[in-house]
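notes to self, project folder thing:

trying the whole complex as one job this time. last attempt i did each chain seperately and stitching them together was a nightmare. three parts in total, labels are on each line so i dont mix them up again. if this works i'll redo the older ones the same way
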Amino acid sequence: MYEGIKHIFKRTFTLKYPYQKVLLPKGFRGRHILYMEKCTGCGICAWICPERCISFVQAADGKDHPQNPENRFPQYWYARCCFCHFCTDYCPTGALDYSPDYELAEYDRELLVWSPERLSKVPTNVGNYRSAFHGNNGSMGVTYEPVEKQPKT
Amino acid sequence: MATQSSTREEDLVNKLKTRFPDAIKGSKIEGNHRITIPFDKDKLLDIAQFMRDELGFDHVKGVAGVDDPTHKKIEVFYFTGSFSKPEIEDLIVVLQAELPRDSPTIASAVSVWESAHFHERETFEMFGVKFEGHPDLRKLLTLDNWDGPPPMLKDIKFPEMGQR
Amino acid sequence: MTANLDQTKTPAPPIVIAAAKEPSTLDVSVGPQHPGSGHLRMLIRVDGDYIVSVDPDIGYVHRGCEKIAEYRTAVSNIPHLERPCIIDAIHLNWGYVLPIEELQGVVVPPRGQYISTIAAEMNRIMSHLYWLAINAGVFSGHTTIFMYAFGDRDLFIELAEMLTGARLTYSFLPPGGPRRDLPAEFKDRLLKLLDYFERRLVEYDRIFFSNPLVIARAKGIGTLKREEAIKLGLTGPVLRGSGVKYDVRKVEPYGAYADLDFEIPTFEEGDSYARFLVRFEEMKQSIKIIRQALEKMPKGPIARKAPLIIPEGEAIARVESSRGELVYMVKGDNSDKPSRVKIMNGSFRTLIALPYLLRNVHVADMPIIYGSLDYWPVEADR
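result (full assembly):
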């Protein structure tokens, strides 16, 4: 009884959603950002995706991408994506990035397929957030031991 | 003490081999905690009784089936362990039996290890292995009106999920 | 229709003996949809107010987890295999990568083991809070503890979000070690949260565990004696509530548990109240483990790059998840996809206790017994 009454005098924690948004931590797993100047079209992201939501299309932005000889870039199908971000971690050139953008709902199912150009736009609709980009060294503070020193156990 | 713990596993294997010389087809000891013992499937109940009463393996953690279409066999694994004897409580002893793929049948271990009840029902449904003597062998997880082949066999393929 | 597990010597109430002579029983389907715990169908045969027998009819949420796992690569399997018990995702993930690391010959560096241990113990606290809120709270009608426990669980979820990036679906441990290191302010915030949580556990004790209503409903109900628990092959808090001191973290230590000092709470009575108390005490032990691990954390690399192919062979590994001992067998055949993944989890092994315990009890005791077993249907069905 006492436990119940003492909560009357505590303040509420409710955020008024569209005007006040949650501060997301760095490295929050929202939608992906594609840096088109780094992607080489190797296909590791599509191979490792658990949901097979990545397929490759030709870039349509008219720019020249010398590092990507076949001019193929990933296209994401967000209806299937489970936001595990293995693609971001395993990309060898660091062309994919985390972002705090979680407001991806659409009225049309076709709009959930994001072309590479749409993915390369840095999100600006996410209200006040701490900087959640992991930087371009692609590691989020992870250090690996060099391959030669691994013991054979 | 590495030598002491390897003799504990070798001890167990030797006890089994002296008691069932022709039914135990070999053994594999890995690390400190795993023993794999292939055995002849007709002697399951005798081996299980011996393991429970003499050696102290009182429960089954699971019963797994593995399909091997290239060698035309289905293997059934019994993962046994012990809760009551502290000196062997960290071991998992895996008993392996090989069954022919066309008509896989084996005696049910429920009379010895009651904990195998639902695991055997699942292996029956998923691989088609008939456990003779099981008190209640019917489908567990799939639909009641599923009449297709046992789902976990490699005959059923999902080409839309990519190469296997 | 009922499983033949009739080996008890408890005397049936006279009304049930009389009823067995004349067919006056009614079959009730405790339907397949349970928004609280997960979907499980129990066909209960009742006579008046007594449950005569029960036949669990599982499989409503079966989706062929083991079959699908053969079609995904070793790393892609991680989000797939952590979904069966998503509130306990780190343990399901860790148990899957341990055999793969054994087959590939990859050893995770010490700092990575400590980070995995901290994440696993946080997950255990979160899973037990969910249990407390739903299985012990809502199923017995105590909605206050539901709101308290879920509120505190959200604080842990925010910390997990800071560590891994996601609230519940972590996919944090690929083969080779954790994906990320601890962020800068993580340690201070976690220690502050643990201090706060310890004060809240005292409150939980006052409103739930020492509540005379809960004690009246749960004490002496659904008793499992020690020999029966061993014979039925139960595991986890159900086993420890019946007097068997068995925990994989002590029996076969993995991760950083060999260096940490903690106890295994065991209670002798074997009734539902003892199972409640086991999980309550386990939360306190988890706090102790996290504090020690944060203090003793070594420096250095956290992960090794693991190969992307699973070599030929098979390996078995086990972890202690919140619901019991979780054993994985992974068989590889020198390709990037495993050829067989077998999951033996605590919930499936607890299934056999349902027809055994739900016999000659009141219908009102069923939620208490079911809640104390902490049966997670999605994990059992895979």
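what i see at first glance: The two ends of chain C are 24 Å apart (CA to CA).
need to look closer tmrw
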